[in-house]
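Field log, afternoon session.

UNIT: design team B
ACTIVITY: writing a sequence onto a fixed backbone
BACKBONE:
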């Protein structure tokens, strides 16, 4: 099959298609992880995006459902240098997702690093004419920016779900903005009962569950679009311990009155160094975000707890008096690194300050 990747700046790359025969539009981003392509594809935070792997060989170890971070592939499309197994091809076909291989992913990565993320179109078909490519370029230039698309409703749970444990240490209400399953697994493993609720669950409904703490999950898109969540979190501040991961960190900052901004090309990979400003310890973390918190916008009673050592951006915040903290990186990272798994223990300890 033929495949073409069309960027809004006019760049056109032709390659070999795999996965589903179809066309998709989305923001083209890259991730530097060397393993974990199943986890990447099924991560709800990639909704609305076409994901490119910088590691050149994908598919070496097959596909297992145990590795899923959701109920299926959430990325819009997949861009790789070379597919090495039929299992990965079949995986994309099963979820109707197109992929392109045999293109220069290093060139594309450098372009995104220099120019920033770009709107793009990926098409896979038996034949693709020059006229079709010209039409795709026109359409991709008219396609909405990711900040203009409501993505969280597409990946959040529709109904509450409860993950029960015997003799729970704590009960967490998880506001699901596109949660990765390993966040839930990490809490349940620590004997914490988790109640997963839709992103637009109201303040009083959350309190009716009598949680020990509330966790705001990761998810796709621009945090500033989630007005309902921000208002709910505002009401919860001071009423109950709160924590957040990734998008949850940004939403908490917005609820405090802070601001967020879109990054040039974001942080996506499993090798991002962050520094704990209190202990001065450095951890290697997994990250997947295209927006960040403006440090100077935070109120006086909220402080930065972690920073990224590559670009000094905010990687975590905490309230100086209230039992509230959040991180921008992913402590639950699969397949790794696991440096910051201890943060789930810190979340559970929040109940002691309820």
């Amino acid at each position: 099959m033929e495949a073409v990747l069309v960027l809004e700046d006019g760049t056109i790359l032709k390659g070999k298609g795999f996965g589903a025969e179809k066309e998709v539009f989305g923001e083209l981003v890259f991730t530097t992880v060397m393993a974990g392509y199943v986890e990447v594809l099924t991560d709800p935070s990639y909704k609305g995006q076409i994901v490119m792997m910088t590691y050149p060989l994908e598919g070496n170890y097959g596909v297992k459902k145990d590795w899923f971070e959701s109920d299926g592939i959430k990325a819009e499309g997949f861009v790789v240098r070379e597919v090495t197994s039929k299992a990965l091809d079949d995986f994309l076909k099963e979820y109707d997702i197109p992929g392109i291989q045999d293109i220069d992913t290093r060139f594309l990565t450098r372009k995104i690093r220099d120019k920033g993320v770009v709107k793009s179109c990926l098409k896979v078909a038996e034949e693709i004419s020059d006229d079709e490519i010209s039409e795709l370029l026109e359409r991709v230039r008219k396609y909405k920016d990711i900040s203009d698309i409501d993505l969280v409703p597409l990946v959040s749970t529709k109904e509450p779900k409860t993950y029960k444990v015997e003799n729970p240490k704590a009960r967490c209400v998880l506001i699901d903005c596109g949660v990765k399953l390993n966040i839930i697994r990490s809490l349940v493993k620590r004997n914490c009962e988790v109640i997963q609720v839709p992103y637009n669950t109201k303040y009083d409904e959350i309190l009716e569950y009598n949680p020990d703490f509330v966790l705001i999950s990761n998810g796709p898109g621009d945090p500033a679009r989630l007005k309902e969540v921000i208002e709910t979190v505002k009401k919860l501040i001071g009423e109950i311990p709160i924590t957040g991961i990734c998008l949850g960190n940004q939403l908490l900052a917005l609820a405090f009155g802070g601001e967020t901004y879109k990054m040039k090309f974001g942080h996506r990979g499993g090798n991002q160094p962050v520094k704990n400003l209190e202990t001065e310890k450095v951890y290697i973390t997994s990250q997947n975000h295209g927006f960040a918190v403006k440090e100077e916008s935070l109120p006086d009673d909220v402080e930065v707890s972690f920073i990224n050592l590559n670009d000094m951006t905010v990687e975590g915040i905490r309230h100086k008096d209230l039992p509230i903290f959040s991180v921008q990186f992913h402590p639950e990272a699969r397949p790794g690194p696991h440096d910051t798994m201890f943060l789930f223990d810190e979340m559970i300890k929040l109940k002691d300050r309820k």
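LOG NOTE: The chain has a mean pLDDT of 97.
NEXT ACTIVITY: expression trials, pending approval
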